[in-house]
Amino acid sequence: MLVVSDTSPIANLVLINQLGLLEILFGEIIVPPAVDFEIRQLNTLGEDISAYESSSWIIVQNPSSLNLVLQLRDSLDQGESEAIILAKELGCDLLLLDERRGTQIARSNGLATIGLLGVLSMAKSSKHIKMVGSLLDELERKAGFWLGQKLRNSFLSDHGE
């Protein structure tokens, strides 16, 4: 499966020491340079990114069409723009992306997307994690990842918690 990722799914998993879930679920992840840069910036905030830095299964690749990236920059940040264009150029199977506007644009370009909740759902259904609730708590505490109570309750209920 060919998977490209934006910053937030990887960064959030790095912050809760669960980056390995992506390798288990997808094998290899491709990120554009802007996403790599954004994740590495966590280090300047005092975060331990050694799991990211040592992951041979995360490949940094440039998108070919910088003009298309620039066109998306009107609506999205650099990482999202590069990730969407790279995913389209590669014909990826899945784009990991959390931001609503980026997801809308990616899907309008024919890309299949899931966010961090989708990753956690896949990990739970494939029995790579036992509980999503404790990870949601950690994401909120360590990464500032916020879900509205209604969505959180629905997500937990859908996963038997």
Describe this entry's structure for a reader.
The protein is mainly alpha-helical and 161 residues long. The chain has a single domain (3-129), classed as Rossmann fold. Helices cover 55% and strands 9% of the residues. Strand 4 (94-96), helix 7 (100-108) and strand 5 form a beta-alpha-beta unit. Helix 1 runs parallel beside helix 3 (33-40) and helix 5 crosses helix 6. The two termini are 29 Å apart. The mean pLDDT is 96.
Lay out the secondary structure:
Layout: E1 3-5, H1 7-15, H2 20-26, E2 29-31, H3 33-40, H4 50-53, E3 58-60, H5 66-72, H6 78-90, E4 94-96, H7 100-108, E5 113-114, H8 116-125, H9 133-143, H10 149-158
Parallel strand pairs: 1-4, 2-3, 4-5
Features:
three-stranded parallel β-sheet; 161 residues; mainly alpha; Rossmann fold
Structure summarized in a few sentences:
With 161 residues, this protein is mainly α.
Give the termini distance in whole angstroms: 29 Å
Query: Can you tell me the CATH architecture?
Result: 3-Layer(aba) Sandwich
Tally of alpha and pi helices: 10
User: What is the CATH homology-level superfamily?
Assistant: 5'-nuclease
Question: Can you give the mean pLDDT?
Answer: 96
Beta-strand fraction estimate: 5-15%
Q: How many strands, what sense, and barrel or not for the largest sheet?
A: 3 strands, parallel
Order of helices and strands: EHHEHHEHHEHEHHH
Gross morphology: globular
Strand order of the largest sheet: 1-4-5
Instruction: Tell me the radius of gyration.
Output: 15 Å
CATH class: Alpha Beta
- Named CATH topology: Rossmann fold
Structure classification:
mainly alpha
